[in-house]
Amino acid sequence: MQDPARHVDHLGGDRGGHLNTINKWAAGISDTLALGLLNEAVGLALPVIAVPFPNRALARHPAFVRSMAQLREWGVRLLFDPDRYPLPTPNLGPASRDLFPWPALQAELAELTRLLLAR
Fold it and tell me: By residue range, what is the domain housing residue 55?
């Protein structure tokens, strides 16, 4: 069996999934290559891990909250827990690059790979 991890790709451009990209994705908008691929993955029921990482203020925006619920309903694996993985504060505190939960993403990818190989 092929290693499913080799199909894991980083659809960058949004530095972790901010308000605009998450909201467009949940609305099914495919106006960039990355969003088009993410929407196709949802339509094909492919496993997707997303790590939304907006600042604290944007994470509380009602549209973002609704979009996150929609993506979860579609089966997107969201690595988002501001209590466990603190979000940046607008214009204050540590830079977002210093807070991003890289170890948690690595663990989530390892778990998804394990599940796919067990099929």
Answer: 4-117
